[in-house]
């Protein structure tokens, strides 16, 4: 079969789960001879992998498609493909409104992109029911820096949160087997990955749909045998959080002392109307247990303000909860009224101005908490994964400590000392800011012992939208 050698530009919007889908498309197309370019003006094929979780994400996706469509007029582009959640949700309408787009692929069709582009007469829309999940044999090209990668352990979600459209876009939960996930993790480690970021729509529900019903802690016990330094847990839904999982987090050094667990609210009334399945007492008890059993744990969570029916009393409960719990990381989302969700039909909508005010208030509380927590680190020594020169200035290096996930958290700026990207060094913190730290290198490994890994591609450009899952 004659291979194509077309140039490809990939734009990814949305969450890290979407990024993994893009990486599968990159791997699939690279196998067919496509070459990745960094400028859309140079690409013969442009792929936009979209997000449709909430209003602003949908708008960003539409704007990006229209922006890329301009390259069909001014650039080398002959084929424009739109994939992901926006296609899944609005494929029919989009195909009528956007004649400049050649193909729309749904959330389960991304692995078919190579066949679609190779065929002379391909359908314009390929939007099957969401039921696909890739495995360790599926081609995939890591688009992150060589020392870090996302590892998707399951796809889809069996929860029915009233504000969330994801189960309709991504389908029910489909977990990968432990052996399959470990195989992919080992391959990533062989490529030089030091940090595995586990992602799923619902990480803690991992395995309940598989024969034998393995649990997340069973998976982690096998993953810690892989030659990586940090394994980070994202999107850990709090409904089921067994003691065995907490025990693995507490006792396995490779499991980063970091947990991304979306809680969404602190008012029992709101938690009930969100259909979260647990009340505020359960959440408080779980947080207490986690912090007691896993000392030094960095907690990331997300909250939603402005759900229909949220009163000032409910909001005061939320603010008090944030002040009391003092989360190390907190994202706050403004409620977005999404057709097709249960919350769309709820009465007592909150005015947008009120939603924005509440968002500002919680963010201001959290900013103070962040600053106070960072100030306590001044003078301390911490281990940092060096990422390379700072984008702001070549005179600074930038990295992350164990409590900072890629793309969504703060960073550590290094203004004294040398280190390679992908190297773990000991930093003494000299300054603290609202979200970032500044420090100097006090210890680093012997550069002669460094393993060199060859990479023939620079990472693909990706825009991120952190989902309030």
From TrEMBL:
Bias type Basic and acidic residues, positions: 446-458
Organism in which the protein naturally occurs: Hyalangium rubrum
Question: Does Cytoplasm count among this protein's keywords?
Answer: yes
Q: Where on this chain does [4Fe-4S] cluster 1 bind?
A: 15, 51, 85
Q: What's this protein's name?
A: Ribosomal protein uS12 methylthiotransferase RimO
The prosthetic group or cofactor this protein requires is: [4Fe-4S] cluster
Question: What is this protein's gene name?
Answer: rimO
E.C. designation(s): 2.8.4.4
Stretches for region Disordered: 446-469
Q: Name one Pfam family in it.
A: Radical_SAM
One MF annotation (Gene Ontology) recorded for this entry: protein methylthiotransferase activity
